[in-house]
């Protein structure tokens, strides 16, 4: 299932009655185009975003101001909406489209009038489409999830890369029980999981297993109409498999139920666990901090009742409601999706990528 459908499902339960995002202009306080990104302020990714904004300014003459916020990003957006001071642009997860749309924060995008819009794939545009069939963002980045595994640990315990869920469980058990780091202590876990409920991390992680087993969260019943499918036996089976890792085989890193991705990245880097189901945007970081010879990337195994499948997500450029500079919003979105914008955002093989893989 594409992330925009998950956004629709989440919006049904998470939407709050925050409207009134009409005219009021940018929150920047000047004529600069204010761009919010969900990144740590001093991170490499934030610096890459500034490079993108600076290049856009050089190409267009439109001044920009990048605001990097990580903690409570959506809460801070709600506060700005309540004050009728939303930023001009927000670069955020595709899964947030449904919630942002139902709260009236984002403007509709006419993709036929967007320069370069015809060069973006139809699949990319689906990530910018709401349940009503209209588009409320411009596609910016996308990536497919996979398993990042400690190759050196796997070779030490003498197992092959996992081809089935049973294989995955056996590898996770070996990493938990057989001292793969060789320190003489039982202090490693098989799976490292961001299992907290903040921003829906638990369901975000589980979704790859659900898709790999042929399950889903919702299905379309008519144009703009959806029904929940979480009681589908394939979905239930996938969630049960994940629950078993926590409660039966106990192969998950301690503290996972309250961890977000920031903490979980560090758990993997510090050698506290050996299997991480995550997107490729952390590869440069792990190569640097763990070592390219110590990690490997393998597909998520097909589940016993379906698959293959995995989470495909990314970010959109959202044109926020109430901006005094709609032309600047559109121009920035066009630049971000252009070849030049994508090259800057990709940042080659360095850390600090803000553009993933379309």
End-to-end CA span: 16 Å
Mind telling me the C-alpha Rg? 21 Å
The strand count comes to: 11
Helical proportion, percent range: 25-40%
Strand order of the largest sheet: 2-1-3-11-4
Q: What shape does the CA trace take?
A: globular
The number of helical runs is 13
Topology:
Blueprint: H1 3-14, E1 33-38, H2 44-60, E2 64-69, H3 73-82, E3 89-93, H4 97-102, H5 122-126, E4 138-144, E5 146-150, H6 151-157, H7 165-177, E6 189-192, H8 201-212, E7 218-222, E8 225-228, H9 233-247, H10 261-269, E9 273-278, H11 283-289, E10 295-298, E11 312-319, H12 326-337, H13 339-346
Parallel strand pairs: 1-2, 1-3, 6-9
Antiparallel strand pairs: 3-11, 4-11, 5-9, 5-10, 7-8
Helix pairs in contact: 2-12, 8-9
Quick take:
By secondary structure, the protein is α/β, with parallel strands linked by helices.
